[in-house]
Amino acid sequence: MSSWKRLKEFGPWSRARLERDLEREIQNHLAYEAQESGDRRALGNIALVKEDVREAWGWARLEQFARDIHFGWRQVRRNPSFSAIAIGTLALGIGGVAAVFSAVDAVLIRPLPYAGAERLVTLWDDLSMSRTGEPKIASTPFEWIQWRRLNTVFTDLALTQPGQATLTDTGEPEQLPARKATWNLCRVLGVQPMLGRAFSEDEDTKSVRVAMISYGLWQRRFNGSPDVIGRKITLNDNPYEVIGVMPRGFYFVPARDTDVWLPASFPAWMRTSPAWHDAHIVARLKPGVTLEHARASMRALSMQVTAKDFRGPHSAMIIPLRAELAGDTRTELIVLLCASAALLLIACVNLANLLLSRSSVRRREVAVRAAIGAGRGRLIAQFLTESLVLSVLGASVGLMLALPAMRFLESLTPESMGAVRLTLDWRVVAISAAAAIGSALTYGLAPALGGSRLALLDGLREGARGSTGARSHWFQHSLIVVEVALAVVLLTCGALLLQTLHHLRQLDLGVRSEKLLTFESPLFRYQDFGKRVAFVEAELEKIRAIPGVINAGAASRIPMTDDGQATFYKLAGQSNDATPDQVALFRIVSGDYLTVIGAQLREGRFFGPSDRRSGAPAVIVNESFAKRNFPGRSALGARFQFGEINDTGYWYTIVGVVKEIRERSVRKDLGPAVYLLHEQTDQWSTSGAQPIAIVVRTAVEPTSLVPEIRQAIWSVDNNQPIARVQTIQEIFDRQLFTQSQSTALLGAFALLALLLASIGLYGVISYGVTQRTNEIGVRMALGATSRDILFRFGRRGLALTLAGLAMGLALSLGAVRLMTALIYGFQPNHAIAGTVVSVILLAVATVACLVPARRAARLDPVVALKHE
Amino acid sequence: MKTSGDKIELLRGTLDLLILRTLLLGPAHGHQIAKHIQRNTDDVLQVEHGSLYPALHRMERKGWLASKWASGEGKRELKYYRLTAQGKKQLVVEELKWKQVVNAIARVPVQAES
């Protein structure tokens, strides 16, 4: 039969004709039969014959499906309360999965904006076997040069370094986020500038002043005009030629918003320094080279290259670019995805239970269907289709719920990736559809099998209630245990994350964070040490004069923002060999700085008027430094050499000890740190460590003073930009932001899980009461008190809860291992989490069980006995 | 219920062959086909309507049979089936298959019943 003809038959008009013809044909046959034998016995089941014929027509299945859907829809409308619960439950489950998946897709699945990104890797130094013990730190330009020359596994390696760019052309001076990059960066990434070109090797090695700018800067500062190429701009007081504009949406580690790319152009000393760790290296694996092979090869090469390093040889580490970009977010998202899947599973288990309970209500309907010729397969198909209708409705509502959740999740995407806008794209819709179908099979299958078997077994027998109970009860009860266990796992994980967050919130930062404004003001115009000291003093003086400002200070780094700026030190009396594992962070600060941020003095004094440029070099150290080097005695008065470890280096005398200030970040370990007075650091003037960070303690809302502060600085130098204006509190909140977001999300999943599990528990107990009303009547008639009944039903629910609780606590031990990356070196108390979760669960479960149990206990025995 | 007395339930696939053979003699309607099979096998093979009509519709769909409504004996309009060219070819195929089945069964040794 031609497909055209087939298609025509599908139309309702020809379909009606076909049906009419079939009816006529069969009636004719029956008429003959009747003539011959006088009865219709041989006829069999007309409906079944017709059904079989329709099946022979070919599209019967589809049509049956359509009819089942229609029937399912009618069922949905007929039982609005059941349907609302089912659809709501599913919407929560599927919506959660859809929202979390959209974030997983954006961060972990969607292609990165580089050609062949799956072959891109980042390289790091692994000093864990050397005496410094850093597991992962930035590599050195020296290593880049050597690796590039000697490696056998990469087509090429490129390098980026921190850079700075102050744009002073027209209008206000602007500090732009900048990176320095080797000339081959674009080539390694497989990215071309959208306008112009990238640096050439020649420009890089000869330090030609050229720059590539971001699409954003091009639009913002140059109105997207194509003649920006070839234009000279003033960066850091030097003329640079703009040679390229990066494509829109281009980003690269470590920050999404780099506006200016400058040639790396290493100075000669940097090419040979084995300890200048500020380089991010990205490399492209040769075709056919596996990650494992590259790792082994680079470990060996790195040991060889660093053989002469005074800290001892060290290894290299390879991390795929995707993993480096995603960072901790990867674990967070995987935990959330597991949590949302668990919630969906709980929702399915709940629905399976609800449907099982209902299938006994629908027993008669099913029996009638079976009697008039529905086979078991047909019944199962119909049950499953009904589940599918519920699931599809649930998924639709779920997608609506997912939209606001996606706005929330956007903030979880890592800093280093491009700005992510989560949308309901086809992948999210596809995963929701898959979740809908999967869930329909999960919760629909057991009731469908059970329901259809029931129908065939019991037929139309009256009052068959309860006789098939044992087996389905057993099944329903195990479902409840599973459900409770999953909820316990989610609750425990949520409790642990909450503990961690609480712990982080309570951390002593070492500074008083309220009303403390910070910003950066670069000092590249003040290369001369004397002029720099004078300028910093002048700008601080102007800021202090602003009404509302209590005090102001300067430091080389803002607390909690940077784990760089560290160097070796040598105590008086030690040999040079001692230094490789003696590393301390250093900060160059103005005299008032420690007072301004509210550091807590433990011993000695802060810097004072006596510490002058010409005076004896003084240093303030933190407690970690003091404890490590002077255990059990006072550090005051001790001397050490810092920076260039040689006989001509400067010696400092410790005058004070402060409590640790979280310099690196909120989460990172405290370590030895020292604070040097700016005026006494002229030997540092080439290292780039300059007090560019200003902190201002205010009496009023700090951000309200920003315009005055800007004016104050411009009154000293009107080409001086100020950048990254933020309060310490903002820095703190931002660092805990993703942590609190994911904790909140996991907490929400956990509470929903608890809610669903208690609804499930309630449903099962309450169903048991309804089913066994007769039995209750008999028991009461035989003398059972309401207490006995209450106890009987309550006990069952609590037994299930306890079983689920035990299983859940055991499972959560495994789940916690998955989350260790999110718990950041903090040892949360599992016992407390477990106890709290148990108490909450038991309380909720008791209510869920007692409500139906009380209903049972209050039954009037007479009514109960008569109960149908 | 399906096999009673000496009536034999049709082997799967043989119904197609029987229908094709019957229609080789000329067009017939469903009841005629059933009766014809029954009569010609001395009532040994009985065609269930439950399988006859689905089979007819299926074979029509495959293009082996064609049908048309015509007035038969009396005032009734009846649906007559006839063999198509394709159906005749199919008959040869089915005959061949049937012979294979018979030969195969014949090769299985029979244990004498006591």
Summarize the structure.
The complex is a heterodimer of chains A (868) and B (114). Chain A has 26 helices and 21 strands.
Verbal overview:
- The complex is a heterodimer of chains A (868) and B (114).
- Chain A has 868 residues and is α+β, with helices and mostly antiparallel strands.
- Chain A folds into five domains: 3-58, no CATH class; 62-112 and 329-464, no CATH class; 128-313, no CATH class; 480-505 and 736-868, no CATH class; 523-720, no CATH class.
- Chain A is 53% helix and 14% strand.
- Chain A is built from 26 helices and 21 strands.
- In chain A, the strands form three sheets. In chain A, strands 1, 2, 3, 4, 5, 6, 7, 8, 9 and 10 form a ten-stranded mixed β-sheet that branches. In chain A, strands 13-14-19-16-18-17 form a six-stranded mixed barrel.
- The longest helix of chain A is centred in the C-terminal third of the chain and has 44 residues, at 728-771.
- The two termini of chain A are 55 Å apart.
- Chain B has 114 residues and is of the alpha+beta class.
- In chain B, 52% of the residues lie in helices and 14% in strands.
- Chain B has four helices and three strands; from the N terminus they run αβααββα.
- Chain B has helices spanning 14-24, 30-40, 49-62, 85-107; strands at residues 28-29, 65-71, 77-83.
- In chain B, helix 1 packs across helix 2 and helix 1 crosses helix 4.
- Classes of the chains: A alpha+beta (868), B alpha+beta (114).
- The A-B interface holds A 1, 21-22, 24-26, 28-29, 31-33, 42-45, 48-49, 52-53, 55-58 and B 29-31, 34, 48-51, 53-55, 57-58, 61-63, 69, 76-79.
